[in-house]
Design brief:
Layout: E1 7-12, E2 15-20, E3 24-28, E4 37-38, E5 41-46, E6 52-53, E7 60-81, E8 86-106, H1 109-124, H2 136-142
Antiparallel strand pairs: 1-2, 1-5, 3-8, 4-7, 5-6, 7-8
Length: about 140
């Protein structure tokens, strides 16, 4: 029997990647600590009969975990112009993040319960009043 294969196209760092659950891939460095999870932008969700994109993706998300921050392979760049003695040698190592796709699909239910908890605690706090600050303009008018 054919195995169900759900895939997604996500956008990370201005590039697009086709991913499946459990995959590990190298992307440009993301501003998330190692071991933490984040939700990249979801562009397309496919597999199991058809692809969905746009408004049909409401309530869907991809969860990715940052496995490690690594340096890419060293790249050497050489410039040379003939008969002038012009030679330049330069290089760099790209800063990358290795991410692991944990889940593709519906949003976690506990996020909605967490939102409810924060709204209920905000409602239970007593309202505080702030005193009116005097500015230099109001002081001049008083003189």
């Amino acid at each position: 029997m054919a195995e169900k294969t759900t895939y997604a196209v996500i956008a990370v760092g201005g590039k697009q990647y086709r991913v499946r659950e459990g995959e590990r891939l190298l992307v440009d460095r993301v501003a998330v600590d190692e071991g933490k999870t984040f939700h990249p932008d979801l562009l397309l969700l496919g597999g199991d009969g058809g692809a969905r994109l746009g408004d049909k993706l409401k309530g869907e998300q991809v969860t990715a975990k940052v496995a490690a921050h690594v340096l890419g392979k060293k790249v050497i760049v050489g410039k040379h112009k003939r008969r002038t003695g012009y030679r330049r040698r330069n290089g760099h190592r790209s800063r990358l993040s290795q991410i692991e796709i944990q889940s593709i699909g519906k949003q976690a239910a506990r996020q909605s319960t967490a939102k409810k908890a924060t709204t209920s605690t905000a409602a239970s706090k007593p309202a505080t009043t702030t005193r009116k600050r005097t500015t230099t303009a109001t002081k001049k008018k008083a003189d």
